[in-house]
Amino acid sequence: MRNWLATTDHKRVGISYMLLALFFLLVGGVEAMLLRAQLAQPNLKFLSPEAYDQAFTMHGTTMIFLVVTPVLIGFTVYLLPLMIGARQLAYPRLSSLAFWLQVAGSVLLYTSFAAGGAPDAGWFSYAPLSETPYSPHPGLDFWALSLLLLSMGSILSAINFIVTIARLRAPGMTIRRVPLFVWMTLVNSSLIVFAMPALNAALAMLLIDRRLNAHFFTPAQGGSALLWQHYFWIFGHPEVYILVLPAFGMISEIIPVFSRKPIFGYDFMAGSTLAIAFLSYGVWVHHMFAVALGKVVLSAFAASSMLIAVPTGVKIFSWTATMIGGSIRFTTAMLFAIAFLLEFTIGGLSGIGFAMVPLDWQLTDTYFVVAHFHYVLFGGTALALFAAAYYWFPKFSGRLLNESMGKWNFWLVVIGLNLTFFVQHILGLLGMPRRVYTYPDLPWWGALNVISTFGAVILGLGSLVFVVNMLASLVFGAKAGPDPWDAWTLEWAETAVPVRSRRPLWDWKREAKRQESGVRSPESGVTASGRLETGDSRAGMGLFVLSESVFFFLLIVAYEYFRSSGGAVGLHLRETGIFTACLLASGFTVWRASVTRGRAWLLATIALGLVFLLGQGREYWGLLEQHVTISSSLFGTTFFTVAGFHALHVVAGLLALAAVWKTPKSRMLAPISLYWQFGSLVWLAIFCVVYL
Amino acid sequence: MTTWDLLVSGWDWEPSVVVGCAALAIAYLLLARPRKPLQAALFLSGAALLLVDLVSPIDALGDHVLLSAHVLQHFLLALIIPPLWLLGTPRELVERALRQHWLAGVERVLARPAISWPLGVVPMIVWHIPGAFNAALATDGLHIFQHLCFLVGGTIFWWPILGPLTEHRLGLLGAIAYLFSACLSCSVLGAALIFMPLGTYPAYVQPVGQDEVARLVRMGWGLDARSDQQIGGLMMWVPGCLVYLSAILASVGRWFAAGNRDEGLAAKASAQVLHRQ
User: Fold this and answer.
1) What is the DSSP code (8-state) at residue A546?
2) DSSP string of A514-533, one letter each residue
3) Cα B24 to Cα B19: distance, rounded to the nearest angstrom
4) Closest residue, chain B, to A546 (C-alpha)
5) Percent of chain B having pLDDT more than 70?
């Protein structure tokens, strides 16, 4: 047991992630069942309005952050090192930390039930509904705090994946040859590194609003509810691709193996993934078409949103073309992969519909939206995950999942999925609003809702068959052997296999067959050692710093956004200028410290950092004496947030410097120095914006 | 005045511009002696676009009535014309030129991403700061200097991506970071323009001296000052980023194509296995 709790082994961490996700899948599934039970008939009183709000908020939050995210990370943690021939992830302890952050966040979210009510403002918690006057109970504080933990965990995992792919590939595994799952993980992790900090910034601001009576998102005090929407969707739209890109990667591994053909258009698959990632940052406003932003802005975002369908379409064609002319084996994994293609395409097509502004105005906040994103997230990601489970279960457990139970699993889930969600398109067109606990008895509404609830029951049964299949197969399943599917990627290789193409394992088997007659066995390859240089911890810190800079950038933008409503008062330009010079000088001394590894430079850095903090303290004190506090005005709110978060980073940097004081030769000094220099540059930016 | 009138009579054949563009085209044909017709077409269309950009109604509208037309002008100067020139320049011409030691030295310095990136991006940001922008509108000399900044800065910016010397181009990851960060700065600038209060660029709120054109734009086209400013911001944001994104995808495509040539044999071998299975 202790071996599992304290493990840093990527296989065990991966399995832990998946089990955690499986548990919350059941929890989120029960919540979905409650929702569907309440909606089965018009004017039901099965759930109270309050309970219904909590159930749909928790269902959405759970499925996105507690199920799909961890299960995708789990698969990646387990498979990534094997696929590129590495022995471990780049930072094994970091992956363990990320897992426990995930656990802590999940537990925290569900503790809210015991602390006076779960969050109930929807998974995107629009302000000002999520602010204290409208949601006084602490549910939303739990929501914001737990999401902060979860998103930090995701960022750490993403950094880990990027460095692993960049540095730990086996000899011969060039970046042009990595399996598409690895390539998509690389792109996806970059998305996480840049998009998650937007969520963190929004959550931090919401928490400051709620706990310290600040005014970021409260229009009554001059704040802007719209700012929350912008920040949330700057994160939220890339998040859609964060949830679906690894699924694309899984499908790109499964379809070729069961079609007995290499993937069609590897280059286009890789390139289109990049295109999706870049475009996904430029389309967030299509979640906000109903907000009055002006028709010019709407048209531009409508165009960019439609554009993103092009690279996605390229993928669909590539998968289809891979199957054409192949000799397809219809295993359960392959059936799920084919169903993924069809169902995801339906979700994609209704998504293009939403890019058309007038259609969006008609359909936004109706069940059409619910139908759309369930086709994307269930029809897309979840079906791909079922496929992945059937495909890689033998790798994880050594046993095959039962195929006949698998067929039951497949048909129940696919039929249930379409029954549940297809009719919701029609309900949306009829005008049924989402997030309302019941509905009047209008023609067809009751009938369609009953079909939807019936479908949900079938879907639930299908998922239960999967759980039973897994438990049964763990005990009674057929022994799988090392390579049950005749696969092409390294995770199925028994020994170290040389990598000379994108299909190392197929090459290896062909070689072996050819040499069967001869005595010589095929030449074996080398796996990467998994040992890291100092440069690699700098690489990880570099990515972390990039992520942090997005966070600070958004805080500074918030300051700038509110500049017109009450400017700066009572700031001391000259003194702060001097302290700024101290901090910038410390950026130089810490660099000298990391080069010379001498204590003197280290001491100078710590001293300069302390002087800066003292200066900051003096500035805060001066403001407080003039009754400028975080809750007094928007200037106070934005200034103390931006400066306070920076000061926190300086404190963290000082602690890190103190931690290496005893061992100045430690290789940890290089990344700490990078972090410190980042901190001083951030202050320079803040100083320029706030003081100049 | 109708749109047609504007299209016909809105041309200002400023002699220095016409002569300059013609000289550029003639100098190109004489010096570069391009052998590939596509290359010549690219360069000459760059020169022609420059002429159109500076004498056509785009210029007239941009100077007095529409911020968006002015942004379009800058967009063409910095992001479209320089790539056309670079793609149209034959390698031999550059090699010949770099035999001059001082030119080779200049090229070595300017082609460094740490130099070329700011030379391309900083003018874009600085010249759209309201003070600088309005000053350039008021003074002709400054305005010409502004356009030269975009043109020259743009050419230097694109050199490590599209320059004729392929060995001086950035590697894949470098190119992605180079272009993506430029795209980010462009987006931020565009977003700022969209959300900036009206009146930041006063010349476009109440156009002076061009009553007929202004009436056409406001009444005929129905473009108020707010929409105009938003279109200006979006011009930088969406099409601007698309140029960078296309360049990124082109780099990825080129990179894979180069790799696939190396891997051709391995791929063939693998295809044979599958046939037998």
Assistant:
1) H
2) HTSSSSPPPPP---------
3) 8
4) B181
5) 94
Total number of domains constituting chain A: 2
User: Which chain A residue has the Cα nearest residue B244?
Assistant: A278
**pLDDT tier for residue B204 given thresholds of 50, 70 and 90:** confident
Query: pLDDT confidence of B277, banded at 50, 70, 90?
Result: very low
Does one domain contain both A55 and A160? yes
CA separation, residue A158 to residues A127, A162, A440, A521, B130 (Å): 29, 6, 46, 39, 40
Q: For chain A, what percent of residues have pLDDT higher than 90?
A: 77
CB-based contact A549:A678 (threshold 8 Å): yes
B145: number of CA atoms within 13 Å, CB side? Answer: 12
In the stretch 296-315 of chain A, residues with CB closer than 8 A to chain B read 296-297, 300, 303-304
Based on the number of CB atoms within 10 Å of its own CB, is A149 exposed (0-12), middle (13-18) or buried (19 or more)? buried
Give the per-residue pLDDT at A49: 94
- Answer with the one of A437, A456, A476 that is the final residue of a domain: A476
Contacts of A267 in chain B (CB under 8 A): 252-253, 256-257, 260
Residue at A533 is within a domain: no
A524-557 confidence digits (pLDDT tens): 676 665 555 545 788 899 999 999 999 999 999 9
- For residue A117, give both structure tokens: 């009510």
Quote the DSSP letter at residue B111.
T
**pLDDT band for position A643 (50/70/90)?**
very high
Nearest residue to A180 via CA among A125, A247, A123, A241: A247
Enumerate the domain spans of chain B.
Answer: 10-258
The alpha-carbon radius of gyration of chain A (Å, integer) is 27
| CATH code where residue A344 lies | 1.20.210.10
**Do A116 and A237 have their domain in common?**
yes
- Among A612, A615, A614, A624, which residue's Cα sits nearest to residue A570? A624
For residue A451, what pLDDT is reported? 97
Residue A453, domain member (yes or no): yes
Question: Do residues A373 and A123 touch, judged by C-beta distance below 8 A?
Answer: no
pLDDT at A567: 67
- Name residue, tokens 């239960």: A464
Domain hosting A69: range is: 2-476
- SS3 (DSSP) at B173: helix
CA gap A23, A15 in Å, rounded: 12
In this predicted model, what pLDDT tens digit does every residue of A2-51 receive, in sequence order? 788 888 899 999 999 999 999 999 999 999 999 999 999 999 999 999 99
Tally the C-alpha atoms within 13 A of residue B196's C-alpha that lie toward its C-beta.
23
Best mutation site among B176, B252, B255, B276 for testing chain A: the one with the most A CBs within 10 Å? B252
* pLDDT tens per residue across span A358-386: 999 999 999 999 999 999 999 999 999 99
For the ranges A390-404, A531-545, B57-71, the lowest mean pLDDT is seen at A531-545
Gap from B176 CA to chain A (nearest CA, Å): 10
CB count within 10 Å of CB A654 equals 18
Q: Specify burial of residue A157 (Cβ count, 10 A radius: 0-12, 13-18, 19+).
A: buried
Question: Same structural domain for residues A421 and A570?
Answer: no
One domain for residues A440 and A311: yes
Residue A492 above 60 pLDDT? yes
Contacts of B187 in chain A (CB under 8 A): 281-282
ipTM exceeding the 0.90 mark: no
pLDDT tens-place string over residues A591-602: 999 888 888 999
Percent of chain A with pLDDT over 70: 97
Question: Final residue of a domain: which of A435, A455, A476?
Answer: A476
Residue located via tokens 């033998």:
A394
Rg from Cα positions in chain B: 22
Is residue A366 within 8 A of residue A353, CB to CB? The reply is no
